[in-house]
Amino acid sequence: YRQQFSCSKTQASIGVNIMPKTVLVTGAASGIGLASAKLLLQEGYQVMAFDPQEELMRHNLPEEDLISFFCGDISMSEDCSDAVALTVKTFGQLDALLHWGAAHSSKRWDELDAEEFNNIMSVNVTGSFLIAQAAAGYMMAGDGGAIVLTTSTSVIFGATGGNGQGGPAYVSSKGAIIALNRSLARALAPKVRCNAVSPGLTETPMIGGMTKKLREDMTRRFPLGRFGIPDEIANAGLFLISEKASFITGEVIHVNGGSNFN
Predict the structure, then answer these.
(1) What is the 3-state secondary structure (H, E, C) of 220-248?
(2) d(CA 64, CA 91)
(3) Are 41 and 66 spatial neighbours (Cβ–Cβ below 8 Å)?
(4) Is-contact 163 154, C-beta < 8 A?
(5) Which of 24, 124, 4, 149 is nearest to 74 (CA)?
(6) pLDDT tier at 81 (50, 70, 90 boundaries)?
């Protein structure tokens, strides 16, 4: 976890004397984080990819001038600070944070113990605070920026766990992130905007444990008739860090195929 990896430190330019924006992306080895990193690279952003799974992250993402890698644990304050420091050292700036990294728990209320509950809260809630704190420390001292955290539609439904669904530990952690987002948005304004994305069920490894029957049952709750794909969730994050969202802060953007009202 303590190792740091960086590719070329060349700061590519877009257009004439315009530097590309730099984004720190957590959970970059797979799922929505991986989709975000790829989309950012396609649009010319500089990306610091952060994930504990170094080999998978390097396998799934290209080695090029616009990307660098940090292998670390989101629940460790030092790792979060080091990731921000390496981003600034490598690219000279940090403009935005897309925090997708999270731990999942499907255990039901009568299967869950304190150790797993506390671990999920440590990674998902404390980790969200620590990486936002580290990023905001740099942004507030400079030209500002944008932060995007991740909650979940499971908070609205009160998912109960089992068969790959989020259980009480996971749902509780994602509910806490909504409150954290509101607090940070007010505390960091006007220099830093902080918002959250709330994905519905998305085709990522996180739902790999769902049974065929549960998938069919859950799909019926989606007016669009399917689960989301990582790019669809990632694009909401890219919108929130863009100038198109310049008057949005403290909000939760739901990207869930309409399942909120079904």
Answers:
(1) CCCCCCCCECHHHHHHHHHHHHCHHHCCC
(2) 13
(3) yes
(4) no
(5) 124
(6) very high
Q: Select from 213, 206, 247 the least CA-distant residue to 34.
A: 206
| Token duo for residue 153 | 């539609």
Kindly report the length of the chain: 262
Kindly tell me if the per-residue pLDDT of 26 is higher than 90.
Answer: yes
* Local structure of 208: helix, strand or coil: coil
* pLDDT reported for residue 3: 34
pLDDT of residue 14: 35
| Whole-number Cα distances in Å, 12 to 6, 61, 97, 146, 243 | 15, 18, 20, 21, 21
Q: Provide the pLDDT for residue 5.
A: 33
Better pLDDT: 189 or 259: 189
Mean pLDDT across 226-250: 94
CA–CA distances in Å: residue 131 to residues 73, 74, 85, 123, 254: 10, 7, 12, 11, 22
The burial class, CB within 10 Å (0-12 / 13-18 / 19+), for 60 is middle
pLDDT above 60 (res 17): no
Among residues 1, 45, 138, 170, the one annotated as catalytic is: 170
From 62-76, 172-186, 193-207, the region with the lowest mean pLDDT: 193-207
Alpha-carbon distance of 82 to 52, in angstroms, equals: 14
Q: What is the rounded distance in angstroms from the CA atom of residue 49 to the CA atom of residue 70?
A: 6
Gap between the Cα atoms of 83 and 71, Å rounded: 8
Q: Is residue 170 annotated as a catalytic residue, yes or no?
A: yes
